[in-house]
Amino acid sequence: MDSNGVDEQEMKLVQGAAGYVLEDVPHLSDYILDLPTYPNLLQSNPAYSVVRQYFVDEDDTVPQKIVVHKDSPRGTHFRRAGPRQKVYFKPADVRACIVTCGGLCPGLNTVIREIVCGLHYMYGVTEVLGVNCGFSGFYSKNTVTLTPKDVSDIHKRGGTMLGTSRGGHDTSKIVDNIQDREINQVYIIGGDGTQKGASAIYKVS
User: Fold this and answer.
1) pLDDT per residue over 70-80, tens digit each?
2) Do the record's keywords include Transferase (predicted)?
3) Are 19 and 75 in contact (CB under 8 A)?
């Protein structure tokens, strides 16, 4: 149990031949039995036809160490990121939200813009909310609707259009608000402290 009273999750390790170890990440299928899949819409979108060459196989992994001795174990690997041929959501069912937390850094608005435009143009998602002023915005009910038009030129401006905040937050209130709003995709943008907060939200939810 960590300092927030949240049970630490055991790391998922997958053992393979010749000393291969995969430090895996949690997946929806770990919690939802018989999880349905759907074809990735990028496969039928002419504008993204080149993506078909770069779909990532489910068994693709990336080694922790680039240089190893020929007789040494294969070592630790991590799941490779990238587009899959199958997705685990229907665009019409997605209600996403984006939040920025912690200190400011270059590129926050660019990340917001790319998430909104990527969800809309690449995956057909039309419901995206922006949470104002960091984690506390979840239970302050400060949200804005985000469309490609709303974020069209924000990458030219500094800071974050959503605002941000530092400090603690009420994890249970955040989870309750996510559930009340029927949000099923949460994009949390920030540094180390923000990702610790994201991990706490994941564990409580």
Assistant:
1) 899 999 999 99
2) yes
3) yes
